[in-house]
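A.,

Following up on our hallway conversation. Structure tokens first:
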């Protein structure tokens, strides 16, 4: 199986793509980026996001990674509504920092040597009747809810899924787990477990008047 469920230890040669998940109200993210006049809370959040973007730039420089546009500058361009390039991963990083400031703490879904493996999992699920829009390759790589410059070399990737459909996804996967091959069963079961939890959280949030409408996936 292509999944590696734990981070590589120091000295290990494994190089993979890490997958994280969080949940929140995407409308708040869009409002922050598109506000004509921001509230005091939005300004406070934006200050923290700017700091995080600069820290990401520093970390990338320490790794010898340079983009045509810095992450900090990409954030400002997203706020201004005018981007200076069509291809650059910095905007994905900046958008992810905005999301992180509004969403829950991230859930680590492990590291994967080939993200395309999720399409193989999707083919297996589809064989037993799971709808196309519930397949992992569909929502993990669906992109952000607004137009951003392309990241370039395919990563990082953003995926989103409606929180109100979490129970539907969990049920679809649970119904076919016993029919999946062993290489796919563990991952499908993990997604079913997570989505069942998110479905319960979404129902509880509605009762409390909160609106966590989006499950956010970050593949890097």
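Then the amino acids I'd put at each of the 220 positions:
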């Amino acid at each position: 199986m292509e999944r590696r469920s734990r981070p590589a230890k120091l000295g290990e040669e494994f190089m993979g793509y890490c997958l994280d998940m969080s949940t929140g109200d995407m409308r708040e993210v869009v409002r922050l980026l598109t506000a004509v006049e921001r509230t005091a809370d939005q300004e406070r959040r934006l200050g923290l996001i700017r700091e995080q973007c600069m820290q990401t730039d520093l970390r990338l420089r320490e790794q010898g990674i340079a983009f045509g546009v810095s992450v900090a500058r990409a954030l400002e361009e997203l706020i201004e509504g005018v981007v200076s390039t069509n291809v650059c991963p910095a905007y994905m990083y900046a958008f992810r920092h905005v999301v992180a400031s509004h969403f829950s703490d991230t859930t680590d879904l492990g590291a994967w040597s080939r993200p395309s493996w999720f399409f193989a999992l999707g083919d297996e699920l589809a064989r037993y009747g799971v709808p196309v829009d519930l397949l992992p390759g569909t929502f993990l790589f669906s992109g952000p809810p607004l137009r951003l410059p392309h990241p370039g070399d395919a990563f990082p990737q953003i995926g989103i899924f409606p929180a109100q459909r979490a129970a539907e996804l969990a049920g679809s996967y649970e119904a076919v787990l016993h029919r999946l091959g062993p290489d796919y069963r563990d991952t499908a079961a993990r997604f079913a477990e997570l989505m069942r939890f998110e479905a319960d959280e979404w129902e509880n949030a509605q009762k409390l008047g909160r609106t966590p409408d989006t499950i956010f996936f970050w593949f890097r």
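Residues 167 and 199 are 5 Å apart (CA to CA). Curious whether your intuition agrees with the design.

B.
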